[in-house]
Amino acid sequence: MRFNFQAPSAATEVTFHDSVESIDADCALVFVDSAVASIYGGRLPLRGEVAELPGGEGSKTPENLIWIWERMARAGVRRDSTVTVIGGGTVCDVCAFAASTWKRGVRLNLVPTTLLCMVDASLGGKTAVNVGGKKNQAGTFHPAERIMIWPGFLQSLSRGELLNGMAEALKTAVIGNRRIAEYLTRENWTEAVRECLAVKGSIVQEDLMETGRRKLLNLGHTVGHCIESASSYRISHGAAVAMGIPFAAEMGGFHGFAEDFRRTAEKLGLGTEIPSSIGLDDILSGLSSDKKTTASGRTWVIPEDWEHCVLKELNAEEEMDLLERAWPR
Q1: Residue 46 pLDDT level (bands cut at 50, 70, 90)
Q2: Which of 24, 49, 111, 215 could form an S-S bond across to 86 if both were Cys, CB 3.0 to 4.6 Å?
Q3: Residue 167 clears pLDDT 90, i.e. is over it
Q4: 19 with 152, same domain?
Q5: Which of 221, 250, 262, 319 is catalytic?
Q6: What are the tens digits of pLDDT across the range 176-190?
Q7: Does pTM top 0.70 for this prediction?
Protein backbone atom coordinates (compact mmCIF):
# COMPACT_ATOMS: atom_id res chain seq x y z
CA MET A 1 0.00 0.00 0.00
CA ARG A 2 1.35 3.44 -0.89
CA PHE A 3 0.08 6.96 -1.41
CA ASN A 4 1.53 10.43 -1.93
CA PHE A 5 1.01 13.85 -0.40
CA GLN A 6 1.83 16.82 -2.56
CA ALA A 7 2.26 20.32 -1.11
CA PRO A 8 3.37 23.32 -3.20
CA SER A 9 7.00 23.01 -2.11
CA ALA A 10 7.26 19.39 -0.96
CA ALA A 11 6.11 15.85 -1.70
CA THR A 12 5.96 12.85 0.63
CA GLU A 13 5.48 9.21 -0.36
CA VAL A 14 4.00 6.93 2.31
CA THR A 15 4.51 3.19 1.98
CA PHE A 16 3.14 0.39 4.18
CA HIS A 17 5.34 -2.68 4.63
CA ASP A 18 4.55 -6.30 5.48
CA SER A 19 7.86 -6.89 7.25
CA VAL A 20 10.58 -4.89 8.92
CA GLU A 21 13.13 -6.45 6.56
CA SER A 22 11.44 -4.80 3.54
CA ILE A 23 12.15 -1.28 4.80
CA ASP A 24 14.77 0.45 2.65
CA ALA A 25 17.26 2.30 4.83
CA ASP A 26 19.99 2.70 2.21
CA CYS A 27 21.32 6.21 2.85
CA ALA A 28 24.32 8.19 4.09
CA LEU A 29 23.41 7.95 7.77
CA VAL A 30 20.72 6.21 9.84
CA PHE A 31 19.63 7.46 13.25
CA VAL A 32 17.78 4.83 15.26
CA ASP A 33 16.09 4.93 18.63
CA SER A 34 18.25 2.83 20.96
CA ALA A 35 15.20 0.93 22.30
CA VAL A 36 14.19 0.01 18.75
CA ALA A 37 17.73 -1.05 17.94
CA SER A 38 17.81 -3.35 20.98
CA ILE A 39 14.65 -5.15 19.84
CA TYR A 40 14.92 -5.09 16.04
CA GLY A 41 18.58 -4.28 15.36
CA GLY A 42 19.35 -7.65 13.83
CA ARG A 43 16.35 -7.43 11.50
CA LEU A 44 16.58 -3.81 10.39
CA PRO A 45 18.15 -3.59 6.92
CA LEU A 46 20.69 -0.99 7.98
CA ARG A 47 23.42 -0.06 5.52
CA GLY A 48 26.03 2.63 5.89
CA GLU A 49 26.76 4.47 9.12
CA VAL A 50 24.32 4.03 12.02
CA ALA A 51 23.96 6.20 15.13
CA GLU A 52 21.78 5.33 18.12
CA LEU A 53 20.10 7.78 20.48
CA PRO A 54 17.53 7.39 23.25
CA GLY A 55 13.90 8.36 22.81
CA GLY A 56 11.83 10.57 25.11
CA GLU A 57 11.53 14.31 25.56
CA GLY A 58 14.99 14.35 27.14
CA SER A 59 16.44 13.82 23.66
CA LYS A 60 14.88 16.96 22.20
CA THR A 61 17.51 19.36 23.51
CA PRO A 62 19.93 21.80 21.88
CA GLU A 63 22.80 19.76 23.33
CA ASN A 64 21.58 16.60 21.62
CA LEU A 65 21.06 18.54 18.41
CA ILE A 66 24.76 19.44 18.38
CA TRP A 67 25.65 15.75 18.88
CA ILE A 68 23.49 14.84 15.86
CA TRP A 69 25.14 17.53 13.72
CA GLU A 70 28.55 16.18 14.74
CA ARG A 71 27.53 12.67 13.66
CA MET A 72 26.41 14.10 10.31
CA ALA A 73 29.81 15.78 9.94
CA ARG A 74 31.66 12.54 10.74
CA ALA A 75 29.52 10.64 8.21
CA GLY A 76 30.24 13.21 5.50
CA VAL A 77 26.56 14.02 4.95
CA ARG A 78 26.30 16.31 1.92
CA ARG A 79 23.44 18.52 0.85
CA ASP A 80 22.33 15.87 -1.66
CA SER A 81 22.64 13.05 0.91
CA THR A 82 19.70 11.27 2.54
CA VAL A 83 19.32 10.76 6.28
CA THR A 84 16.93 8.08 7.60
CA VAL A 85 15.45 8.24 11.09
CA ILE A 86 13.94 5.16 12.75
CA GLY A 87 12.07 5.79 15.99
CA GLY A 88 9.23 7.50 17.75
CA GLY A 89 8.09 11.09 17.65
CA THR A 90 10.81 12.62 19.80
CA VAL A 91 13.68 10.99 17.90
CA CYS A 92 12.06 11.89 14.57
CA ASP A 93 11.49 15.48 15.74
CA VAL A 94 15.04 16.26 16.79
CA CYS A 95 16.75 14.35 13.95
CA ALA A 96 14.46 15.94 11.37
CA PHE A 97 15.34 19.35 12.84
CA ALA A 98 19.00 18.50 12.41
CA ALA A 99 18.39 17.33 8.82
CA SER A 100 16.55 20.55 8.01
CA THR A 101 19.43 22.72 9.16
CA TRP A 102 22.48 20.66 8.14
CA LYS A 103 23.88 22.20 4.93
CA ARG A 104 20.58 24.19 4.91
CA GLY A 105 18.58 21.02 4.44
CA VAL A 106 19.31 17.42 3.45
CA ARG A 107 16.92 14.75 2.21
CA LEU A 108 14.99 12.90 4.87
CA ASN A 109 13.27 9.51 5.27
CA LEU A 110 11.29 8.57 8.38
CA VAL A 111 10.45 5.13 9.76
CA PRO A 112 7.99 5.73 12.62
CA THR A 113 8.01 3.02 15.27
CA THR A 114 5.27 4.26 17.65
CA LEU A 115 1.58 4.71 17.03
CA LEU A 116 1.79 8.42 17.82
CA CYS A 117 4.52 8.93 15.24
CA MET A 118 2.70 6.83 12.64
CA VAL A 119 -0.63 8.65 12.95
CA ASP A 120 0.69 12.18 13.32
CA ALA A 121 4.29 13.19 13.99
CA SER A 122 5.86 11.66 10.87
CA LEU A 123 3.71 13.54 8.33
CA GLY A 124 3.68 17.26 7.72
CA GLY A 125 7.27 18.33 8.16
CA LYS A 126 7.20 19.86 11.64
CA THR A 127 10.53 19.49 13.44
CA ALA A 128 11.41 20.75 16.88
CA VAL A 129 13.58 20.83 19.98
CA ASN A 130 12.62 21.86 23.50
CA VAL A 131 14.35 24.86 25.06
CA GLY A 132 14.40 25.84 28.72
CA GLY A 133 11.97 23.09 29.65
CA LYS A 134 9.36 24.46 27.23
CA LYS A 135 7.94 22.29 24.47
CA ASN A 136 9.00 22.70 20.82
CA GLN A 137 10.40 26.23 21.13
CA ALA A 138 12.75 25.95 18.14
CA GLY A 139 11.69 24.25 14.95
CA THR A 140 11.38 24.22 11.19
CA PHE A 141 9.17 22.79 8.44
CA HIS A 142 11.03 20.02 6.60
CA PRO A 143 8.79 17.26 5.19
CA ALA A 144 10.23 13.80 4.72
CA GLU A 145 10.51 12.52 1.17
CA ARG A 146 9.50 9.03 2.29
CA ILE A 147 7.63 7.65 5.29
CA MET A 148 7.91 3.87 5.65
CA ILE A 149 5.36 2.24 7.95
CA TRP A 150 5.49 -1.28 9.35
CA PRO A 151 2.58 -1.76 11.81
CA GLY A 152 4.45 -4.69 13.35
CA PHE A 153 6.51 -2.23 15.42
CA LEU A 154 3.39 -1.67 17.53
CA GLN A 155 3.52 -5.22 18.90
CA SER A 156 6.48 -4.32 21.11
CA LEU A 157 4.94 -1.13 22.53
CA SER A 158 3.74 -0.91 26.10
CA ARG A 159 0.05 -0.28 26.71
CA GLY A 160 0.92 3.23 27.87
CA GLU A 161 2.74 4.00 24.64
CA LEU A 162 -0.15 2.64 22.59
CA LEU A 163 -2.54 4.88 24.53
CA ASN A 164 -0.24 7.81 23.82
CA GLY A 165 -0.76 7.28 20.08
CA MET A 166 -4.45 6.47 20.44
CA ALA A 167 -5.01 9.90 21.97
CA GLU A 168 -3.45 11.62 18.98
CA ALA A 169 -5.48 9.43 16.63
CA LEU A 170 -8.65 10.30 18.55
CA LYS A 171 -7.77 13.97 18.09
CA THR A 172 -7.69 13.36 14.35
CA ALA A 173 -11.08 11.64 14.58
CA VAL A 174 -12.51 14.80 16.16
CA ILE A 175 -11.03 16.97 13.42
CA GLY A 176 -12.01 15.01 10.36
CA ASN A 177 -13.14 11.36 10.56
CA ARG A 178 -15.11 9.86 13.45
CA ARG A 179 -14.62 6.34 12.02
CA ILE A 180 -11.06 6.44 13.33
CA ALA A 181 -12.45 5.98 16.86
CA GLU A 182 -14.06 2.73 15.72
CA TYR A 183 -10.77 1.45 14.27
CA LEU A 184 -9.08 2.21 17.58
CA THR A 185 -11.74 0.32 19.51
CA ARG A 186 -11.10 -2.75 17.31
CA GLU A 187 -7.32 -2.18 17.42
CA ASN A 188 -7.28 -2.10 13.64
CA TRP A 189 -4.02 -0.19 13.61
CA THR A 190 -3.41 -0.25 9.86
CA GLU A 191 -6.75 1.38 9.05
CA ALA A 192 -6.42 3.83 11.93
CA VAL A 193 -3.00 4.94 10.70
CA ARG A 194 -4.13 5.15 7.07
CA GLU A 195 -7.21 7.24 7.89
CA CYS A 196 -5.29 9.53 10.26
CA LEU A 197 -2.71 10.22 7.57
CA ALA A 198 -5.47 10.85 5.03
CA VAL A 199 -7.09 13.48 7.28
CA LYS A 200 -3.82 15.14 8.18
CA GLY A 201 -2.48 14.91 4.63
CA SER A 202 -5.52 16.66 3.15
CA ILE A 203 -5.01 19.55 5.57
CA VAL A 204 -1.24 19.79 5.23
CA GLN A 205 -1.42 19.80 1.42
CA GLU A 206 -3.50 22.97 1.64
CA ASP A 207 -1.48 24.68 4.36
CA LEU A 208 2.02 23.32 4.83
CA MET A 209 3.31 26.38 6.72
CA GLU A 210 0.38 26.50 9.18
CA THR A 211 -0.95 29.91 8.23
CA GLY A 212 -4.59 28.84 8.27
CA ARG A 213 -6.43 25.53 8.33
CA ARG A 214 -3.48 23.48 9.54
CA LYS A 215 -3.88 25.16 12.92
CA LEU A 216 -6.82 22.78 13.47
CA LEU A 217 -4.25 20.02 14.04
CA ASN A 218 -3.30 21.80 17.26
CA LEU A 219 -6.57 20.64 18.84
CA GLY A 220 -5.91 19.82 22.50
CA HIS A 221 -2.28 20.90 22.24
CA THR A 222 -2.48 24.43 23.65
CA VAL A 223 -3.35 23.24 27.15
CA GLY A 224 -1.80 19.83 26.49
CA HIS A 225 1.72 21.21 26.09
CA CYS A 226 1.28 23.18 29.32
CA ILE A 227 0.26 20.00 31.14
CA GLU A 228 3.30 18.16 29.80
CA SER A 229 5.68 20.91 30.91
CA ALA A 230 4.01 21.32 34.31
CA SER A 231 4.43 17.59 34.95
CA SER A 232 8.09 17.71 33.87
CA TYR A 233 6.98 15.40 31.04
CA ARG A 234 5.83 12.65 33.40
CA ILE A 235 2.48 13.01 31.65
CA SER A 236 2.93 11.86 28.06
CA HIS A 237 2.09 13.99 25.05
CA GLY A 238 -0.92 11.89 24.06
CA ALA A 239 -2.31 11.78 27.60
CA ALA A 240 -2.01 15.56 27.84
CA VAL A 241 -3.77 16.06 24.50
CA ALA A 242 -6.62 13.80 25.67
CA MET A 243 -7.04 16.15 28.64
CA GLY A 244 -6.76 19.26 26.49
CA ILE A 245 -9.52 18.38 24.01
CA PRO A 246 -12.53 18.33 26.37
CA PHE A 247 -11.10 21.33 28.20
CA ALA A 248 -11.08 23.30 24.94
CA ALA A 249 -14.67 22.20 24.34
CA GLU A 250 -15.63 23.44 27.81
CA MET A 251 -13.95 26.78 27.06
CA GLY A 252 -16.16 27.13 24.00
CA GLY A 253 -19.28 26.18 25.93
CA PHE A 254 -19.74 22.85 24.13
CA HIS A 255 -20.33 20.78 27.24
CA GLY A 256 -22.28 18.04 25.44
CA PHE A 257 -19.41 17.26 23.11
CA ALA A 258 -16.94 17.40 26.01
CA GLU A 259 -18.88 14.68 27.80
CA ASP A 260 -19.26 12.60 24.61
CA PHE A 261 -15.52 12.81 24.02
CA ARG A 262 -14.76 11.80 27.61
CA ARG A 263 -16.98 8.72 27.30
CA THR A 264 -15.29 7.69 24.04
CA ALA A 265 -11.82 8.27 25.45
CA GLU A 266 -12.58 6.31 28.61
CA LYS A 267 -13.76 3.32 26.55
CA LEU A 268 -10.30 3.30 24.99
CA GLY A 269 -8.62 3.55 28.39
CA LEU A 270 -7.68 7.22 28.10
CA GLY A 271 -7.98 9.53 31.07
CA THR A 272 -9.31 13.03 30.41
CA GLU A 273 -9.19 14.72 33.82
CA ILE A 274 -6.39 17.21 34.49
CA PRO A 275 -4.54 16.10 37.67
CA SER A 276 -5.26 18.16 40.77
CA SER A 277 -1.51 18.68 41.17
CA ILE A 278 -1.59 20.98 38.13
CA GLY A 279 -3.15 24.37 38.74
CA LEU A 280 -4.37 27.14 36.49
CA ASP A 281 -1.20 29.08 37.30
CA ASP A 282 0.83 26.24 35.73
CA ILE A 283 -1.25 26.52 32.56
CA LEU A 284 -0.82 30.30 32.43
CA SER A 285 2.93 29.91 32.84
CA GLY A 286 3.03 27.46 29.95
CA LEU A 287 0.87 29.66 27.75
CA SER A 288 3.40 32.47 28.04
CA SER A 289 5.70 30.56 25.66
CA ASP A 290 2.99 29.18 23.35
CA LYS A 291 4.04 29.42 19.69
CA LYS A 292 0.55 30.40 18.51
CA THR A 293 0.70 33.71 20.38
CA THR A 294 0.64 36.90 18.30
CA ALA A 295 0.38 40.59 19.16
CA SER A 296 -3.41 40.39 18.84
CA GLY A 297 -3.91 37.25 20.90
CA ARG A 298 -3.74 33.47 20.79
CA THR A 299 -5.54 31.09 18.43
CA TRP A 300 -7.45 28.25 20.09
CA VAL A 301 -9.00 25.22 18.42
CA ILE A 302 -12.53 24.78 19.77
CA PRO A 303 -14.21 21.41 19.11
CA GLU A 304 -17.95 21.94 18.74
CA ASP A 305 -18.72 18.36 17.73
CA TRP A 306 -17.15 15.40 15.96
CA GLU A 307 -15.68 16.55 12.63
CA HIS A 308 -16.51 20.16 13.46
CA CYS A 309 -13.74 22.29 14.96
CA VAL A 310 -13.29 26.05 14.65
CA LEU A 311 -10.36 28.41 15.12
CA LYS A 312 -10.97 31.20 17.60
CA GLU A 313 -8.54 34.01 18.33
CA LEU A 314 -8.81 35.29 21.88
CA ASN A 315 -7.25 38.38 23.35
CA ALA A 316 -5.76 38.15 26.84
CA GLU A 317 -8.93 39.22 28.64
CA GLU A 318 -11.22 36.89 26.68
CA GLU A 319 -8.83 34.00 27.12
CA MET A 320 -8.54 34.47 30.87
CA ASP A 321 -12.31 34.62 31.25
CA LEU A 322 -12.83 31.34 29.37
CA LEU A 323 -9.96 29.59 31.12
CA GLU A 324 -11.37 30.46 34.54
CA ARG A 325 -14.86 29.33 33.54
CA ALA A 326 -13.65 25.98 32.17
CA TRP A 327 -11.09 25.21 34.89
CA PRO A 328 -12.30 22.32 37.07
CA ARG A 329 -13.33 23.44 40.56
Answers
A1: confident
A2: 111
A3: yes
A4: yes
A5: 221
A6: 999 999 999 999 999
A7: yes
User: Catalytic: 237?
Assistant: yes
- CA-to-CA distance for 311 and 314, rounded, in angstroms? 10
User: Looking at 134, 136, 161, 168, which residue is catalytic?
Assistant: 168
Domain membership of residue 167 (yes or no) is: no
Q: 50-64, 190-204, 212-226, 286-300: lowest mean pLDDT where?
A: 286-300
- CATH number at 132 reads 3.40.50.1970
For residue 298, the domain's CATH number is 1.20.1090.10
**27 and 103 housed in the same domain:** yes
The reply to whether 234 belongs to the active site is no
Instruction: Write down the mean pLDDT value for the chain.
Output: 94
Which of 132, 157, 182 represents a domain boundary (last residue)?
157
Q: Does 168 participate in catalysis according to the annotation?
A: yes
Please report the pLDDT score of residue 7 as a whole number. Answer: 78
210 is catalytic: yes
In terms of domains, do 6 and 146 share one?
Answer: yes
**302 Rama sector, left if φ>0, alpha if ψ -120 to 50, beta otherwise:** beta
199 lies in a domain? no
Contact (Cβ atoms closer than 8 angstroms) between residue 135 and residue 236: no
Angle at the Cα of 157 from the Cα atoms of 92 and 21, rounded to 5 degrees:
70
State the pLDDT at residue 250.
98
**107, 214, 262, 298: the active-site residue:** 214
Is 104 an annotated catalytic residue? yes
Domain count, the chain: 2
Q: Supply the pLDDT for residue 1.
A: 65
CA proximity to 185, closest of 166, 199, 171? 166
Is 179 part of a structural domain of the chain? no
- Which residue, 153, 99, 161, 86, is CA-closest to 126? 99
Is 255 designated active site? no
Catalytic residue list contains 21: no
Domain range enclosing 93: 2-157
User: Per the residue annotation, which of 57, 161, 195, 210 is the catalytic one?
Assistant: 210
Q: Whole-angstrom Cα distance, residue 2 to residue 24? A: 14
Q: Can 195 be counted among the known catalytic residues? A: no
Mean pLDDT, residues 198-213 taken together: 94
